[in-house]
Amino acid sequence: MEIEIATIGGYEEVGRQMTAVRAGDDIVIFDMGLNLSQVLIHDNVETEKMHSLDLIDMGAIPDDRVMSDLEGDVKAIVPTHGHLDHIGAISKLAHRYDAPIVGSPFTIELVKGEIESEQKFGVENDLVKMEAGGTMPIGDDCELEFVHVTHSIIGAINPVLHTPEGAVVYGLDKRMDHDPVLEDPIDMERFREIGREGEGVLCYIEDCTNAGKKGRTPSESTARRHLEDVMKSVEDYDGGIIATTFSSHISRVSSLVEFAKDIGREPILLGRSMERYSGTAERMGRVNFPDDLGMFGHRKSVDRAFKRVMNEGKENFLPIVTGHQGEPRAMLTRMGRGETPYDIEDGDKVIFSASVIPEPTNEGQRYQSEQLLRMQGARIYDDIHVSGHLREEGHYQMLQALQPQHLIPAHQDMAGFAPYTKLAKSQGYKVGRDLHVTENGNTIQLVE
Ligand SMILES: [Zn+2]
Q: Whole-model pTM above 0.90?
């Protein structure tokens, strides 16, 4: 059976991930993501109203025109997890394919939200929920399987397309976490089985984000302990404490909520995406928040919550807000600019349970946001975080588990592929033979 891979997006950047695998006449698409930095750089761009081709030209969504080079029918569109660089283009591209969108239940809920806020296209693809460990047939000869992985969002999976020529494992995005906070550990046992059963692994497509960092990525429980230590250190402070983290990082938000209670403060979630992600997780029973936890997204209800905090005393609350990257319209940035009823005073604490995404737009915006907070006397606690991506030894362990015949580095640009390529070469792979370093818009024929 012919096996061909199209590297559509996310092979020249971190963002707008999209890859297609053709097995004979059947095609499966993995991820359809948005490159948010290409959007944020323009002021007041409303992607909801924009046409796909304009977004492609901006470099914001994958240029899927290469799909016309693949001869076959798309049988499924499979987002691996709910981060925008993996689902953010579904509302712009999925309607072009007559195929269901298949994802884990949490991911599908988030996809539903994306589709509902879309204003340009009507996306009517079926939405199919499949749990980790589940399988579904693709055409007559192939099968799609979800393997549970750990990442900085719940409900992450690595999809595997089992073909008569071996398994194609799509490895974006994960950390090898054996002690995560809300979920089960990564299912390494299944990866090891897939590496050894049948024809083994024909191809592994790997997330190279942190390939250049030595050792292993620490577990989420490490970030949790760090956070607990910081929170307890400010327990006796009788002024304002504010925390921010990734809205989609439900495990971290849940730890923040828990530690707020531990130090005698009432947690409140503020900001549109904070309300959306945590609200979704709570409705689905994926997280156990206290019954009285307030979540506010709309401007008026946020302002009302802030006024209550100011009336009842800042020392009684922990606002958990959006804006960890200094995004101009996010809550923390607005607080820094004095645009909310919350007064930041000399000595107030701001806890960033996130690190800056190393990208110039983020770095600049985060710097500005921190300066605004500091100018009012805020004390900043930075980098209380662990990455959601594998480092070098995690990559090595994945290669040991899967023993793939072919490797395709992804989720980076050419410079970001270099450390992974070095590791792969040390394990006997060779560029041009079985190690396929590539860019956006290419196809790689693995089996003719
Ligand atoms: Zn991710």
A: yes
